[in-house]
Amino acid sequence: MKSTPKVIDSNILNRKSHFSFSQNPVEEEHLLLLFEAARFAPSSFNAQPWRYIYARKNDADYPKLLNLLAESNKVWASSAPILILSFAQVFDLKNNRANRFAFHDLGLSTANLLAQATSLGLATHPMGGYDVERAKEVFRIPEGFEPGAMIALGYPGDSSTLAEDLQKRNNAPRMRKELSETVFKGSWKAE
Ligand SMILES: Cc1cc2nc3c(=O)[nH]c(=O)nc-3n(C[C@H](O)[C@H](O)[C@H](O)COP(=O)(O)O)c2cc1C
């Protein structure tokens, strides 16, 4: 029998939200692998409610994505060679049915994408700081779909060229709650 690994998967452990990106382009086949990884996520009733719109820096649609971002994100995300906007199908109009797991399953799919990116040496950074309503207008998102996170993607850049505050955020230790605060055996732990 295989022994249990003593460390969590390196693509989970080594992923972090990057603030600087190299201008080296992301190979098309690598980008496709990320979306293939996202595609293989589990989903409630196998509904696969995730959708992704992406643009490369030299595409006409890139500024549409970039300009949705809050200034605090735009300042560093504008160096990302690729921006991706994710969506969840929260309501199926054909069957008149809401999917209460749509964002859950979009998250699973995006987590796969981020892990696959990490395994390929790519840098990622998910963002919620953007104008959600304008995103729906700009991209004419059909009814029943809601935007999820925007993701900055590229190869890691030289963080020493970042402004001091961003360097600090980029190099900060990754803080997490203790397991005892988030995992309860048998019953809900009272605060
Ligand atoms: C849905 C979502 C929205 C986020 N929004 C932003 C954002 O708008 N700006 C930002 O700098 N980071 C954003 N983040 C990144 C988080 O701040 C980051 O994941 C968290 O601090 C943990 O750090 P780590 O990703 O390096 O482990 C977001 C992450 C997620 C998953």
If you had to describe this structure to a student in words, what would you say it looks like?
- By secondary structure, the chain is an alpha+beta fold.
- It has a domain of 132 residues: NADH Oxidase.
- The protein is 34% helix and 18% strand.
- The protein contains 8 helices and 6 strands.
- The strands form 2 sheets. The protein has a 4-stranded antiparallel beta sheet with strand order 1-2-6-5, with helices on both faces. Strands 3-4 form a two-stranded antiparallel ribbon.
- Helix 2 runs antiparallel to helix 5.
- The longest helix is centred in the middle third of the chain and has 18 residues.
- It is globular.
- The model has no long low-confidence stretch (mean pLDDT 96).
- Flavin mononucleotide binds next to strand 5.
